[in-house]
Amino acid sequence: MLNRRRFLNGAAVLGSAAAAQLQLPAWARTGAANNMYGISALSGTEFHLRADRSKSIIDGKSGRAITINGQLPAPLLRWREGDDVTLHLSNGLDEDTSIHWHGILLPPEMDGVPGLSGFAGVKPGETFTYRFPLKQAGTYWYHSHSGLQEQSGHYGPIIIEPKDADPVQYDREYVIVLSDWTFENPNRLFAKLKKHSENYNFQKRTLVDFFRDAGNDGFGDALSERAMWGRMRMDPADIADVTGATYTYLINGHGPGDNWTGLFSPGERVRLRIINASAMTIFNFRLPELPMSVVQADGLNVKPVETDELQIGVAETYDVIVHPHQDKAFTIMAESIDRSGYARAILTPRMGMVAAVPPLRERPTLTMRDMAMSHGSHGGGHEPEASMHEQHARMDHSGHNMNTDDRATSSSASPHGDHNSISGHDKHDSANMTGGMSAAQEHNHPTGPGVVGLAETPSDRLNEPGLGLENQPHRVLTYADLSALDMNPDMHDPERELELHLTGNMERYMWSFDGKKFSEVEDAITFHEGERLRLTLVNDTMMSHPIHLHGMFFDVVKQAHHDHTKARKHTIIVKPGEKLSVDVTADAVGDWAFHCHLLYHMMAGMMQVVSVKPRAHHQDHQMDHSGHEMHQDSAS
Ligand SMILES: [Cu+2]
Fold this sequence. Notes:
This is Copper resistance system multicopper oxidase. InterPro entries: Cu-oxidase-like_N (IPR011707), Cu-oxidase_2nd (IPR001117), Cu-oxidase_C (IPR011706), Cu-oxidase_fam (IPR045087), Cu-R_CopA (IPR006376), Cu_oxidase_CS (IPR033138), Cu_oxidase_Cu_BS (IPR002355), Cupredoxin (IPR008972). Keywords: Copper, Metal-binding, Oxidoreductase, Signal. Residues 371-449, 614-636 are annotated as: Disordered. This protein is an alpha+beta fold. It is built from eleven helices and 31 strands. Strands 11-10-13-18-15-16 form a six-stranded mixed β-sheet, with no helix packed on it. A six-stranded mixed β-sheet has the order 22-21-24-29-26-27. A five-stranded mixed β-sheet has the order 1-4-9-8-6, with no helix packed on it. A hairpin with a 2-residue loop joins β15 (292-297) and β16 (300-307). Residues 1-36, 198-206, 216-237, 374-443 and 618-636 have low confidence and may be disordered. The structure holds copper (II) ion. Copper (II) ion (CU) binds next to loops.
């Protein structure tokens, strides 16, 4: 298979994507377990992976990619639940590299984040060997956690076959790896993002001006949101900060021009294992004319739910079943969240058939809810408070920050850093000591140059489909639609709550938790072994952030209490202005990365370390309050 793939690559390198396409029917027939074109599979328990710089052809144009075993995406790894796997990663690059096994539950030193848990990364010319047991099944993926390598192609899919019968019935399966490719050097792109943000001044000043006007003149109800945003001349970068202007969106390494092709026989149940391996792109995924039954999210089975479209955040995975009966071809459409471009592929009974590609829909606009502001309540609330207001208006730039001002002054919040120096930890203690969540919230108003906005009225948006998908003529999946197929392994109520704010300053391209960039954070967020805690995330920014915790799944909390089939995920999109909660069982001692999975947001500082501290082993593991008390002791 590897040789075959090399041959295909060779054909493409000769300059003819069509030549590669011509190989498809034969290739597709030779695939046994995995009948797929574009990503070859490796299976077994021992794997040799080598990272290199390779020439790669994207839509007929030559680029420099980081590949694994010469491939982009990296090879599909097929594992079996219950096996111990050994993976040798050799570094053929001229810089350090790494592989993080996304969503895989494993010992922390095998998690592959350089600088954490004793893993130092893999130096050029060296080989690192990963070894771990497989305690789960499902669809996952792997990628570099070094620098911006993920943007250059260093990612690949993983399928772990369940050791017991698979509850999902299907006749054929395809991995659908979504990604965003740029011919630009990612380091330059990142530098440009920081620089570009200066240009933001002008645009955002108009927003500030608008709110000043609104403060003076009253916030006319007649003014529609759309007109308002139009007047503020929003940049598409407010939806996605890297767009189709530089990106070519890929499915299994193929641009829209290549049109990756999957075959099916009418009547078959086809399982699509969708993985968003992008650096920065959230996708809206659909097959026009074909309903999808969602059967898995982030590798874990969910109660099947039928839908027509879903929004998939960076690093999330969804498995869906489609059941095409007709002898016709269907487009697989992955539109970027800002509608600046798309990836597409085709599911077809045979080669040579075509399927229409739907036009890109209108670019979505942000709403008042995205800004976490309630409508109409701002009329008199924004009378300029003299110089402080002015100062912030100059420093910040979104109307949003007006709220910050008000909040900061009215609650007389102290400068950031005093009570937020150890994010979460302190807050939670005060919450416990005073016996309520309100204290935690009272203390949790991140401010400072890294914070532009503050969600004034953050809302529960779990039952909303995702930015820009609000008013579709068809069904769109929401997180509230997801329930675990199996009972949750831990049904305890959380013992404590920890609230974290997602914060940012777009103009300076600073992204952070609780207003502190990773480089400024002095201590880890502490979890205690065995405790059950509720992590509440409040998005104070106007962007959607896919937030990922390493080492542990979290259970998505719906409003209904005592739900023992909460969907369990490794990554969750937090919408603009949203407040959502997940419950975590801290069962994995060690240091784990916790970050936004938008690559440049993570690099800009939206990352922290969660440290699960071992606790002395009393026998009272079952007692809910023991962790609690220990925690207070250790913190005081
Ligand atoms: Cu982010």
